[in-house]
Specification:
By secondary structure, the chain is α/β, with parallel strands linked by helices. The chain has helices spanning 47-69, 88-104, 114-120, 166-176, 184-191, 214-230, 234-265, 280-287, 307-318, and strands spanning 7-12, 17-24, 27-35, 78-84, 109-113, 134-139, 144-149, 155-160, 269-273, 293-295, 321-322, 341-342. The structure holds 5'-O-[(R)-(carboxyoxy)(hydroxy)phosphoryl]adenosine and zinc ion. 5'-O-[(R)-(carboxyoxy)(hydroxy)phosphoryl]adenosine (KG4) binds at residues 15, 140-142, 167, 170-171, 182, 184-185, 188, 274-276, 278-279, 303-304.
Length: 343
């Protein structure tokens, strides 16, 4: 389907990044993310601080995004925003702002499922987009899923983590070795300089296409306790090899379930999405996989951003699928379905 030419103001505030974008058709006219540094020193996202930071960032970020896009409010056709899943307070700021701004400008709203947005970011130009059906490994700080994507609106989760998300595993291991939040990108950075075969960690065995990452943290903790006992300088001397080995374990677990999903479904178009799709080890493993057609998003569309919400806004607005001013945040919204209804 050709992407329709709607112009959407998009807002993403599900966690700790305030994202605002203007998307016209499949083109991104502006895409800003106000990162919240404040969580770094707390070792994780503090929900109350995240909502407060969204409140102080959102107006200026919207003004800047419109300015960057050289667009005035009268050029906008609808306001898309993340309705869930995510942190309640964070979602509440984005939802309330989006509905108020839309109401003030007499525009409709498009409530968007965050994980569906990560997947549909693959339809933003100029990158090649997959044909339907395709498989998407969505890996973020809160989710790890293998999704069978039938169309823009029909998506089935065929595998999921039974405990921690892959991003959470990266962040928890990073925290164990004293790295600031979010530790995933730092583990990736140090892994570049290390040997992934230095230490052996075992991936947890789970039936079918499901995965488990919580055991890795315990395994790493025990490993570190033992090593540090005999060699207190272990982390200083082995940081790079340690990070490379942990990263290889997580990537190996993800790739082996993806392999299984391809065999079971017979689908060889494989995409990745979500914050952990920025991981260089995962990107390399996928790029080197022969026999599959792989789709790896640009880094700016991996971690949370509003352009991915905007493309969903365009697609859903074209179908007349809008929300209402009665819509409220849905922190635990389960299915990857469109969130608006036909009008
Ligand atoms: O999609 P995202 O920005 O937010 C959520 O929806 O959760 O994903 C954030 C997660 C964090 O756990 C972060 O550590 C991880 O993505 N992440 C990475 C990398 N960049 C971000 N993990 C490993 N390697 C990276 N390069
Ligand atoms: Zn996300």
């Amino acid at each position: 389907m050709k992407i329709p030419n709607f112009t959407i103001l998009a807002i993403e505030s599900s966690c700790d990044d305030t994202g605002v974008s203007v998307v016209k058709g499949d083109s991104v006219l502006s895409n800003l993310v106000a990162n919240q540094e404040i969580h770094t020193r707390h070792g994780g996202v503090v929900p109350e601080l995240a909502s407060r930071a969204h409140m102080s960032n959102i107006i200026a970020t919207v003004d800047l995004a419109l300015k960057d896009a050289k667009i005035s409010p009268s050029d906008i056709d609808a306001v898309a925003y993340t309705i869930g899943p995510g942190l309640s307070g964070s979602l509440l700021v984005g939802t309330s702002f989006a509905k108020s701004w839309a109401w003030a400008h007499n525009l409709p709203t498009v409530p968007v499922h965050h994980m569906r947005a990560h997947i549909l970011a693959h339809f933003i130009a100029p990158n090649p987009s997959p044909d339907f059906p395709f498989l998407c490994l969505t890996v973020s700080g809160g989710h790890t899923q293998i999704v069978h994507v039938h169309s823009y609106s029909k998506m089935d989760v065929i595998g999921t983590t039974v405990d921690d998300a892959a991003g959470e595993a990266f962040d928890k291991v990073a925290k164990l070795i004293g790295l600031p939040y979010p530790g995933g990108p730092l583990i990736d950075k140090y892994a570049h300089l290390g040997n992934p075969e230095s230490f052996v960690f075992k991936g947890s065995k789970v039936d079918g296409l499901n995965m488990s990452f919580s055991g890795l943290k315990t395994q790493v903790l025990r490993f570190l306790q033992a090593r540090l006992k005999s060699d207190p300088q272990f982390m200083e001397t082995h940081l790079h090899d340690f990070c490379a080995s942990v990263q290889a374990t997580i990537v190996g677990m993800l790739m082996s379930k993806l392999e299984q999903a391809v065999v079971e479904t017979g689908i060889t178009q494989v995409a990745i999405a979500g914050g952990v799709s920025a991981n260089s080890g995962l990107r390399k493993a996928l790029a080197q996989r022969e026999g599959w057609q792989v789709f790896i998003p640009p880094l700016s569309y991996c971690t949370d951003n509003a352009a991915m919400v905007g493309i969903v806004g365009v697609l859903d607005a074209a179908e007349g699928r809008y929300g209402t001013l009665r819509d409220t945040p849905q922190p635990r919204i389960p299915a990857l379905k469109p969130c608006g209804s036909h009008r």
